[in-house]
Amino acid sequence: MKNLDLQEEVIHTIKLLDDQLSKREIKLDPKGYFLIKIEPLTNELILEHYLNDIDQKGRAIDPASGEPIGCKTKSRNEPSNIYRGKSAKHVGIKISEGQGPFPISHLDHAIYIGRELQRAEQCLITGEQYIQD
């Protein structure tokens, strides 16, 4: 019983910390952004890479229209590249190893993509819906 209480306390503490950290200001990666999806029919993780520009205010700008790209903006652009793999590690290696060029230039962006790929992989395994953070 005590282990269950301790586990719930740890989960609660982590959630509070993550919620707080999600409110911090971040600098966007000038090489673009990713949309992560899962495809249950093929048991694949799909990582779509989109190009963007960064304006003087640090916002992502659609290179074609010059309009800001918001988190809820439906992209009309085609991805610059699509990476597919059977696991988070499989996709992660595709975007970070080899000759390059690589679609990520900021370390914090790479760590974020790794975390999200792990979450997406877990949803693929459990059948839960994946929603990118």
Q: How would you describe what is shown here?
A:
By secondary structure, this protein is of the alpha+beta class. The chain has one domain (29-126). 37% of the residues lie in helices and 17% in strands. The strands form two sheets. A three-stranded antiparallel β-sheet has the order 1-2-5. A two-stranded antiparallel ribbon has the order 3-4. A hairpin with a 4-residue loop joins strand 1 and strand 2. Helix 2 packs antiparallel against helix 3 (107-126). The longest helix has 20 residues, at 2-21. The chain is globular.
The gist of it:
The protein is of the alpha+beta class and 133 residues long. The protein has 3 helices and 5 strands, in the order H-E-E-E-E-E-H-H.
Structural class: alpha+beta
Oligomer: single chain
In angstroms, what is the radius of gyration? 17 Å
Number of strands: 5
- Our estimate of the beta-strand percent is 15-25%
Largest sheet: 3 strands, antiparallel
Order of helices and strands: HEEEEEHH
Low-confidence stretches: none
- Gross geometry: globular
* Strand line-up in the sheet with most strands: 1-2-5
Counting H and I runs of at least 4 residues, what is the number of helices? Answer: 3
pLDDT average, as an integer? 90
Number of domains: 1
Q: Helical proportion?
A: 25-40%
C-alpha termini separation: 32 Å
